[in-house]
Amino acid sequence: MPDPAILLAGVLNGLLAGGIYVLVAVGLTLIYGVLHIINFAHGSLLMLAMYAVFYLWRLLGIDPYAALPMVIAGSFAFGFVLYRLLIGRYNHGRDENILLITLGVSIVVDNAALLFFGGDTQTIDVTYAGSFVELGAAFLPLPKIISFAASLLLCLILGLYMAKSDTGKAIRALARERQGARLVGIDVDKLFAVSYGIGIACLGAAACLLMPSYYVTPSSGHAFVLVAFTIVVLGGMGSFVGAAVGGFIIGITESLGGLILGEQLGQIGISLIFILILLLKPTGLFGGAR
Amino acid sequence: MTSQGKFPVSRRGFVAGSSALAAGTLGFPAVLRAQPAAVKVGMIHPVTGFVAYNGQQSRLGGTMAVEDVNKAGGIKSMGGAKLEALLGDSQSKVEVGVSEVEKMNEQGVAAYIGCYQSPVGIAASQAAAKYNTPFLIDVGASDLLVSRGLKNVFRLKPGFGVCVDDGIASLGALNKAAGGVAKTAVIVHESGEFGTGTAKLLAGKLPSIDIQAKELIAHDNPTRNFDNIALRIRSLAPDIVMMSNYGNEYMLLARTLYQQKVNVAGFFSILGGGFNYKFVKEMPDVAQYMMDVNHWFNPRSAQAQALKKRVEDGGALFTFEVYLTYTNVMLLADSLERAGTADKEKLTAALASSTFKAELMPYGPTRFVNGQNQGGRPATMQALKGDIEVIAPAEFASAKAVFPKPKLN
Amino acid sequence: MNVPSSWRVPLLATGIAAALAYPLLVPNYLVTVGMLVFFTAFIGQSWNIAGGFAGQTSFGHVVFFGTGAYTSTILQVTYGWNPWLAWPVAMAAGGAVGWMIAVLSFRAGLKGSYFALITLAFAEVFRILANSVPFTRGGLGMLIKADPRPENFQFRDPIWIYYLAFVLCAVSILIAWQLTRSRFGARLVAIRENEDAARALGIDVFAEKVKVLTLSGAMCAAGGTFYAQKYLYIDPSIAFGVDKSVEMLLVSMVGGAGTVFGPLIGSVALTGINEGTRWLAGIVPALKNVQPLSLVVYGLMLILIVARLPDGLMGLFRRRPKAVPRA
Amino acid sequence: MLEVRDLSKSFGGLKAVDGASLDVRRGEIVGLIGPNGAGKTTLFAAIAGFHRPDAGHVAFEGRDITGLAPYKICAAGMVRTFQITQPFAAISVRENIMIGAYLHTGDRRLAEREAEAVASRVGMGGQLDQNGADLTVAGRKRLELARALATGPRLLLLDEVMAGLNPTEIGEIVEVIRDIRAAGVTILLIEHVMQAVTSLAERVYVLNQGRMIAEGTPAEIASDPGVIEAYLGHGAAKVLRA
After folding, report:
1. What is the pLDDT averaged over residues D33-39?
2. What is the helix (H) or strand (E) element at residue A250, kind and residue range?
């Protein structure tokens, strides 16, 4: 057992890592909550957004944080169009077809990225990458603190949007009662596309916040998918608050599991939490009735 | 069509009759030219999937070498026969790699080169063994590759066993020269075949140079976050950090250790996947003073420098995959030259008895024992001021090592 | 199938005859491809029996595959068993894992995507464990010594492993066919269509689901042993990687989930597309160095199939009811 | 034959059924009526094993079946249908009914013959090859009935088999139910509409807000002030009498 100062630092590291997980998971949980589908293209679309951030920086010199609005808007548009043109049009009303389409999209996107961007690892070297805040035994890198704060803020904005705006309310109504929403005259198909778009926009945000401390390759997005699923299940599928809290819990678990059990075995912690939650409380911490 | 062993004649007849048909329908054109038939070389690499970059680099080196051999007049003992590269994608999958072997066998390859990932290489070379076709392992760290008693498998580069031995030797020398400042080490490695094997060997051999391995830390591929490993290392306060992992994790780990101000006398990696020109140029501060024991070209070889320039002029990086595959094609060409035929048995014999001089590499004369070249050895490099310098072995060195590295402020 | 019943027997006989004659007529490469088609159809069918017939969609079927591969390999390499003898044990182990996962998850009442995700998590736990425990040799993987003798489950000529894969596939199709005409199968379909109604009609839903996952697990484990014997090397990411799970689900769904011939047809189509696009990339000079393109085409074909044939390729042969609107 | 004693079931603080009791005797047709949300379906579900009751007992043919799994209760000879029909959409009517018939036989041909016989009993003989998803509302109701019947029950719990049907269809299904009873099956049926019950049932129970408020012949029930109030609101009985 490592000493308490290290454990505390581990908790802080976990919290910071959780910040990014939250964004990825919020997108996933929204798509699941509304569309009841598991988005197999999640990792690939995250990767695509990461390349967008990278090329904005490389070609136009735009700082990843400054690129946030642009990438979020672009990701939203991409998700919206993808749903409208492909997923919504060709699923023939079947969930399993959506699954296959998102799987197909994932294969196409991954390999198109390989074709156009090449396979090598790309990183962004920003001047503040090396800055850090010292807190006890922990050295907290500035980019991770920024990403933590920004991700909280973005989640808050999204939460408010979902709670207050008409579109947000309609989406939540849709998530709860699909037939009902159709009956009261909500344009269900458009809202599905909007929801998918918002889900992908969250990935855009995550990409901006990730790039200063991570890297991108055509397969780098998938690293975040399983952990995002875990968070979504932990928080309760379809629950925003759940995804936020779940993200931090998983971040800390991963961190402490790694410190205590060793990095490799520590990853088991995530999967075990996943299994235990499903077995004991499948609705998750914040999920309503299934 | 080389059918194997005991098999009902009827089928052989079938196959012979149908292979012409198959060739026609499948569009494998029979080469009928005035000049001698080209010698087909099957190159199987993972050019899609997780390690696509590495596979593509290998393919780049391989195709350049084929061009060079042909430009220089082909295989002279075979009447100037040209080499023809058949390019295969293993998709990082064992099944697909084996399927490529079978496909290329139909196309009549004289030898294979591949496969980057050891598991794919193990299965693919096993499949090639059925046809007694030589299989040159260009990249592939596992010693399982050359410990199966397969007569057709050759590996020019050293396995990780040798890399660990050489690494231990050069680290020991450096440490001795520095007055034994390093007494403890932490080993960070990827959890697969390559990292685990390397780390275990390292941990066993470090005591021989008076360094104790305090801990072995395994991590998954991919790892999203190395903050905790950095934290753990800082709390263990070793004198050196040793690493064995693939490109992305290597880079991310190095950057995290730098960001987290992990202050040690040196970073020393064995086959550090990310230790390349891109890394030291894009992150000079992170890379500064990092050391790596790896496959490296001989910096004093004019031919190597010329190839490096050609590759870089083409917009690519001169990574070890490029010149390892390049060199393997050259080894094959040399053996073909000596065998004077593409006959598999004779070619295998020529390879087995090869004394090929790997011009690009800091190797001694080639001598295969059970398929493993005994002359192959890695180099020890250090990143210095945004460039990579060879610091050992001495006869190839381009700079003097800085060890221990200056403390961070 | 909508095929007139008088055609069925001749059609089937022709199919079997063609499959038997095929390896005699084509070069070894295509024999290997044929072997892969049947092998993938076989593990696809193991998925289909649980995922297609009983509607228990799993994302982590590879957990059974890997259990089978590791069980037989450990018995053979570490304990010197004959692989043929180790095969049934591997199947039993796969069945046991299926039973365990089923009991745990169905007792907890998991359905739909919840069940799918828990299987994914189990596969991940098994992968990490295989990477960490000593008896699997961790990340070093396990190598089976090449010793091509039939009594050793290794064959010098690819034709025999082709026939073995064919037999496995045929047996799995027989099992699926039996499901379409037995009480057990009817109950599985009832469970897939509506669990409450099934329960009301006297079906012990829990027991039937446990049974089917045990059966499916045992079948899939048989595929794992077959794979290990064919390729002679396994490591945690080969044996428990998510790729294989996706492959099983993909061939079944593309072919037509819950149909007898769906996995086979899906496997023929997907393997065909994959080999075909790779072959094209190999011979068209302009495409020589753009291998990823073949996978792009593969992905597009997948989307196209779904867009045009919502019931999978089997939809070409039969009429299925319109989808019930998603509630 | 069926004894329900002081059965209670609540969902998160809301008492859906509160100490309800009822009896069904062999050969009877018994009606259970009550306004919307009275707890009829919950009571049914609790009797048939779909909800475990919080309190009370259910006995079938003298055997305590409280909290037994539905499939066991079905095997014991009591089967329910669903108010919202639950056809197996992707399979044919024949296969739907066979699922029920499989309760007593593992033989496919036997189950098939049984299914065909049951189908003609409920007037679906001509729809055997239609898919469950393609049926009309009336067809689905019949299918519910047929499937349940195929399990060979001695007591049938029918949950609003007439809801959503037009008068002609109701007339037909009433005949079918009579025939079923004539063949020796006891029936407990839930209906929201009182008229439908009066023509069928010998005795009627009335459930309101989870409590059993009346029991008697249809005529007695029709004139019970408590029942009228339950249906039409407080004070309604007085108004009607005036």
Report:
1. 84
2. helix A240-261
Every domain of chain D and the residues it spans:
2-87+151-241
Q: With beta carbons less than 8 A apart as the criterion, state whether C132 and A264 touch.
A: yes
Angle at B199 between CA B194 and CA B205, to 5 degrees: 130
Q: What pLDDT shows up at residue A2?
A: 64
Interface contact B53-A119, CB threshold 8 A = yes
Partner-chain contact C30 B129, CB within 8 Å: no
Nearest to B114 by CA among B98, B95, B130: B98
Contacts of D131 in chain C (CB under 8 A): 321
Shortest Cα distance from C310 to chain A (angstroms)?
6
CATH of domain D2-87+151-241: 3.40.50.300
B154-166 burial by CB neighbour count: b if 16+ within 10 A, else e?
A: bbbbbbbebbbbb
Q: Distances from the Cα of A104 to the Cαs of A197, B51, B93, B389, C91, in angstroms?
A: 18, 20, 19, 45, 32
Residues 20-39 of B with CB under 8 A from C: 22, 26-28
- When scoring A46, A123, A147 by the number of chain B Cβ atoms within 10 A, the one with the most, hence best to mutate, is A123
Domains of chain C, residue spans: 27-241
CB nearest C183 (choices: D79, D106, D132) = D106
Residue C241 in 3-state DSSP? Answer: coil
Tokens standing for residue D171: 């007339």
Closest approach of chain C CAs to the CA of D99, in angstroms? 6
Question: Which chain A residue has the Cα nearest residue C294?
Answer: A111
Report CB contact under 8 Å: D89, C203.
Answer: no
**DSSP bridge pairs for D156:** D79, D187
B1–C contact, CB cutoff 8 A? yes
Q: Model confidence over C66-114: pLDDT tens digits? A: 999 999 999 999 999 999 999 999 999 999 999 999 999 999 989 888 8
**Contact criterion met (CB < 8 Å) for C182 and D106:** yes
Q: Which domains does chain B have, with CATH numbers?
A: 39-157+300-376 (3.40.50.2300), 161-294+380-396 (3.40.50.2300)
Name the helix (H) or strand (E) containing D216: strand D211-216
Nearest neighbour of C293 by CB, restricted to A99, A115, A229 = A115
Stretch C183-201: mean pLDDT, rounded? Answer: 94
The full DSSP string for A168-233 is: HHHHHHHHH-HHHHHHTT--HHHHHHHHHHHHHHHHHHHHHHHTTTSEE-TTGGGGGHHHHHHHHH
Please determine, for residue C22, whether its predicted confidence score (pLDDT) is greater than 90: yes
A228-276 pLDDT, tens digit per residue, is 888 888 888 888 888 888 999 899 988 888 888 776 677 787 888 888 8
Tell me how far apart the alpha carbons of residues D77 and D61 are, in angstroms, rounded to a whole number: 9
Q: Which domains does chain A have, with CATH numbers?
A: 4-129+142-280 (1.10.3470)
Tell me the Ramachandran region of residue D96: left when phi exceeds 0, alpha when psi lies from -120 to 50, beta otherwise. Answer: alpha
Q: What whole-number distance in Å separates Cα of residue B391 and Cα of residue B395? A: 9
Beta carbons within 10 angstroms of residue A180's beta carbon: 11
Residues 177-196 in A contacting C (C-alpha not used; CB under 8 Å): 178-179
Nearest Cα to Cα of residue B276 among B257, B297, B302, B259 = B297
Residue A226 with chain C: CB contacts under 8 Å: 120, 124
Is the pLDDT assigned to residue B244 strictly greater than 70?
yes
* C95/C64 Cα distance (integer angstroms): 8
The Cβ of residue C302 has, within 10 Å, a number of other Cβ atoms equal to: 24
To test the contact with chain D by mutation, choose from C196, C201, C204, C318 the residue with the greatest count of D C-beta atoms within 10 A, namely C201
The minimum CA-CA distance between C314 and chain D, rounded to whole Å, is 15
- Which chain A residues have a beta carbon less than 8 Å from that of C326? 36, 93-95, 178
